[in-house]
Amino acid sequence: xxxxxxxxxxxxxxxxxxxxxxxxxxxxxxxxxxxxxxxxxxxxxxxxxxxxxxxxxxxxxxxx
Length: 64
Hints:
The protein contains two helices and two strands. It is an alpha+beta fold. Helix 1 (3-17) runs antiparallel to helix 2 (34-49). The longest helix has 16 residues, at 34-49.
């Protein structure tokens, strides 16, 4: 397991236990909310999967 996977495991464990602080090496990382932590988990999962966020092009028409 690499460092990012281990960090993801710690984030998920903290998230599901209700904690907002996670230890990373010699420092503590404290999230402002569970939502912020959930976003960090999602971003890290996407990064580990190799998926980059895609930009969506929105096309609208007046119906004609």
